[in-house]
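Data availability (excerpt). The following record was deposited with the supplementary files.
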Amino acid sequence: MSHKVLIIDDDAHLREGLAEVLDAEGFSCSEAANARAGIDLAKKHDPDVVIMDIQLPDFSGFQICQELRKHSRDFVLIMMTGRFLSAEEKTQGFELGADEYITKPFDIQELSIRIRQLLSRKGK
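Predicted structure:
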């Protein structure tokens, strides 16, 4: 059974590239270009993994994290950031339910391995 991955990022190039590689790795990907669409998709499709940008035009990643965790605590939540995060910001994210942070640019193979490790820890 392939794991469902939801990618929420306003950068279409990054989002589509990530989906393409993860699809090839055996994941089933859906994409959202903004927070609202991402939250709606997550509620409809119950993804196993959500990979999302912290800085989206309509909401901060922390707000999305909070909203998604109200709906479900079962999925793996990976936050992507293009900038250095302070210890306070990282702590806030973890307290709100993030499982992992990755900084752009990142190696997609490494991300794929991290996803599998996090899924196995959650027993999926």
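Summary of structural features: Residues 108-121 form the longest helix (14 residues).
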